[in-house]
């Protein structure tokens, strides 16, 4: 997501007063930024490799749509690391003297646009993924017959286009992005806004982000409730439930990470933009930005660690520790009384026949190792 850099990665005001300490501290800041960017690139690249491998192997339309959005989310995070991280290193290489290397505010504008775009895009994707999975579980026939692959790709393009439009609004409305107090990044003009438009732009960013988080919470809650209800009523005994469990675990983890990392920042932006007093709020803003930096580091590890193979090992450990025979565990391990027929193209709706039918049985698929 947004490539924010933590306060500890930035040169403090003490750097300006003590020249000798400045060079050491700033050098450490650049090194820390490079390490952070490298870790993020490695994590997202590894997660992307796993998702692409699964996407190429999958023959089920429902999960293929999920993997398409998940891969797009990881690609967005990866590009955020590359582009915004490179811009930060560029700013540090000029000792953050924006007046010298950016007199026309071109770099600052590019920086601000990238910050907003790579912040909103993953939040939007997380919300759409939750809604798509909710429809796939609660309305499987509608999902299979109506939501075709080209529809998912068009929706993905619209998400990126909308995020880019919001990021370009300050430029289109002649409200340029502003160098923040730490002088290491650019964002909306929030300190002492001149008029209602200066207040509207950061508020729009925050409200859209909070709306995406709310969409994720509602969608994931409905999906989880539907699966638990079917399981408790013993109506859904197909082996294909394992892939639903995998995706739900990943969605819940993404939602939790996004809420913890992004919630304080989005709320703080609203407070800073609408506060009546003029006391500086940069310290608290940088504090919540530090939390937001962990989002793009943790996101890829959701797909790396919460894969079916890893979840199976977790179930095995729990089964060994508690020493109980779990009926659901054996359904995870072995095939249920279910047969699946898919089209040769791999986009047809699966035909699952279980001993006990249920409204959710259309979503059952064969076990994918």
TrEMBL record:
Signal sequence residues: none
Keywords for the protein's UniProt record, in alphabetical order: Cell membrane, Disulfide bond, G-protein coupled receptor, Glycoprotein, Membrane, Receptor, Transducer, Transmembrane, Transmembrane helix
GO (cellular component) term, any one: plasma membrane
Membrane topology listed for this record: Multi-pass membrane protein
Biological process terms in GO annotation: adenylate cyclase-activating G protein-coupled receptor signaling pathway; inflammatory response; positive regulation of cytosolic calcium ion concentration
Residues that span the membrane, as ranges: 30-52, 64-92, 104-131, 155-174, 200-228, 248-271, 283-306
Main location as per UniProt: membrane
Segments forming domain G-protein coupled receptors family 1 profile: 43-303
Cell compartment(s), UniProt: Cell membrane
InterPro entries linked to this entry: GPCR_Rhodpsn (IPR000276), GPCR_Rhodpsn_7TM (IPR017452), PglndnF_rcpt (IPR000141), Prostanoid_rcpt (IPR008365)
GO molecular function terms noted in the UniProt entry: prostaglandin F receptor activity; thromboxane receptor activity
Protein name from the UniProt record: Prostaglandin F2-alpha receptor
Gene of this entry: ptgfr
């Amino acid at each position: 997501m947004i490539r924010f850099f933590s306060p500890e990665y930035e040169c403090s005001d003490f750097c300006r007063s003590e020249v000798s300490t400045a060079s050491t501290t700033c050098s450490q800041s650049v090194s820390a930024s490079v390490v952070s960017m490298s870790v993020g690139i490695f994590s997202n690249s590894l997660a992307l490799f796993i998702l692409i491998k699964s996407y190429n192997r999958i023959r089920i339309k429902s999960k293929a749509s999920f993997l398409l959005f998940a891969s797009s989310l990881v690609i967005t995070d990866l590009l955020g690391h590359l582009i915004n991280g490179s811009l930060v290193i560029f700013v540090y290489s000029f000792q953050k003297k924006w007046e010298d290397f950016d007199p026309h505010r071109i770099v600052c504008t590019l920086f601000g646009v990238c910050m907003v775009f790579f912040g909103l895009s993953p939040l939007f994707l997380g919300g759409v993924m939750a809604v798509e999975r909710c429809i796939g579980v609660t309305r499987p026939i509608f999902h299979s017959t109506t939501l075709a692959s080209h529809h998912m790709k068009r929706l993905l393009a619209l998400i990126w286009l909308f995020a880019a439009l919001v990021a370009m609004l300050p430029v289109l409305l002649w409200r340029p992005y502003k160098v923040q107090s730490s002088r290491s990044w650019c964002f909306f003009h929030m300190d002492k806004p001149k008029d209602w438009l200066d207040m509207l732009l950061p508020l729009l960013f925050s409200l859209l982000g909070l709306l995406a988080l709310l969409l994720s919470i509602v969608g994931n809650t409905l999906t989880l409730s539907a699966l638990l209800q079917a399981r408790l009523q013993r109506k859904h005994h197909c082996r294909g439930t394992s892939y639903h469990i995998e995706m739900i675990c990943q969605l819940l983890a993404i939602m939790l990470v996004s809420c913890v990392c992004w919630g304080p920042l989005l709320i703080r932006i609203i407070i800073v933009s609408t506060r009546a007093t003029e006391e500086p709020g940069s310290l608290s803003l940088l504090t919540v930005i530090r939390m937001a930096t962990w989002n793009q580091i943790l996101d890829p590890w959701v797909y790396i660690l919460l894969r079916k193979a890893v979840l199976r090992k977790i179930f095995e450990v729990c089964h060994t520790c508690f020493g109980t025979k779990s009926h659901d565990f054996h359904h995870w391990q072995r095939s249920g009384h279910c047969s699946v027929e898919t089209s040769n193209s791999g986009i047809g709706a699966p035909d699952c026949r279980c001993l006990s039918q249920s409204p959710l049985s259309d979503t059952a698929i064969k076990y994918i190792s």
